[in-house]
Amino acid sequence: MKGMRLLVMSATIVSAVVLAEPAGSAAPGGEEPAIGLFDTVRPLSGIVSSETLQDTPGWQQVPEDKADHRFQGDAVLRNRRIAAVLRKDSPGAEVYSRSPKGWRRQAVLVPCGAQRAGKLSAAKTLANDGETVAVDAAFQGPDGKPLGLVCELRSERVFLKTEPRGATSRLRIETASRFGVIPDFYADDILLDAASVPVSRACIPSENMFAQLLGRGDVLAVSLWDGPPQEIELTLTGSGHQRRIDGLEIQYAKRGKAYLALFDFPGACYAETLGNLPDRTEPIAGFKLDKPVKRLEWTMPFPAQWRVDFLTEKEDAKVVRSREMSAPYPYPVTDGKCQGFRFIKPSFVWDWGGGTQTEMSGTPDKYPSWVDFEGRGFARPVGTSYAVLVYPFDRGRGTPLEAITLTDLVRQTLGVGPCQYILDADRKMAQTPGIFTCGGTDMLKKMEGHITQDRARAEKLLGDMLIFVTAYRRRIEQFIAFRWDLAAYLNSQEKQRPDQKPLIGKMKALLEGIPAEIRQDYPKVIEGLNVEYRATLDSDDQAAKKKREGLHRRYTAAGGAQDDILAKCHQAAKLLRYQAGLTLTADTAAAEIAVEVRKRASAVLQNPMYHETMNRHRTDGR
Q1: Record: fold of 25-263
Q2: Closest to 250 in 3D by CA, of 199, 209, 198, 215
Q3: What is the pLDDT of residues 569-620, one digit of tens each?
């Protein structure tokens, strides 16, 4: 089990990968204001050009703290990264992002009630203090009911905050993307390819966010909302590989807010089908590769934890589809000099300072995705994967202060930790009894040298680790019972509904991600280790210390192995819940089965233990 999530990057890569502009920003120097509210004086027509948004020709900047300004033209909220344009002939707020190439329109945010908004009827300034600008936009609905949308922009932020007013209850975000992602902080992301969704409207069981890779996959748009997690409704158009998600609708919570963030800078994200990418077989960092890998047309813009998602033709709970980019790190280091390199995942801490070689070190062939010394990305397909997505998931060692990642965005918008918002409001995290095996062994290690005097405390730690492992064993047994009960239900439905064999077969395949039984009795393993450990507590000599050192590794190995089983169970149940949600919109004839599967999967996912939702990525490349 691993604690801190830090990216360790070689000095070579840190120095080689340099942003042409501050990460996530293309703001030039000079006297450009960090944020401003503008009156265009004359109404705008069509999509606003980059030059117009940048130079604001003929526009009037509304003086700070002037709340009674009457807009003659259209209202524009702009900082150095994004802008929102409220035009009199538009049904919503047009959102633009800024990159080194200029300003581009990326989305339109349309307030909706029983019907979507018509045209803007009025705009009122709510805030304009040099740090925040906010406008209350009033729209007229087709039914005559007023629909309001408060748009707020803050200095140096990449997101627009919205709040409903009047009869507004939903927000429609109109964009264009082939690929969508439901980011998961604890397990694999759930991925959506518009080319694989046959219906024009689909309800997606998201949590509190949905990400899209816009355009050619080079702009990351993230929609977020507070309140209980909900199903969002997507609309799709086009056919084949040209099929696109052209909008999503979010239901506002009571006194809720919704956000749209745009990551628009070189390397902000990446999406491509693997068949379009060239193979690479030459050595990387001196290591030969056994299999051909794909060279991504992407270079890492800054050190961070970059999430790599593989879209697969089949949903297989046994295949890990979300990975982290590994990177070369100097090892070993002798007398301050680098003697070679090993590859390491960014979520692990590298303890080379103490001369410790950890199990996280390795060669590129152990990982399905990595960057080389120049920060260029590479990936090896996993399972039946046909496309790869990349985006900045979290910060790490070497991440510039001005850079933005998904985790940064969550903190800036929702303002709570992932464990508090990614799960349903009534799905409270179960209290973890006892102590993690990694935590318990860490505490035992700190007692070394005087453990004989602290025997009572050591005994308690041993007992608490057993309590912990036993509780997790019981949680796994809940998933196993869920597997057998759901399998029995599916078998009965297969007999009654032979026309639904394809769906039932898919559900059964996902159910295979949960083991039918636990072959290793981990609580019994811990009991045996406790007996061996207690036998050493009367001595602090070298033999006893060496024995305890070996036992520490065995404790964490046993606890970690059981944690992995639990995480796989959780992921399989999540995939079942997700697949059932998709089925509800794609096949009305299968609705009864899908509702029952979704209900059962949702029930077993409640009250999760901590480690079943940890984002644990295997190092064996499977």
Answers
A1: Beta-galactosidase; Chain A, domain 5 (2.70.98)
A2: 209
A3: 988 888 888 778 667 655 667 878 988 998 899 889 888 887 775 543 332 3
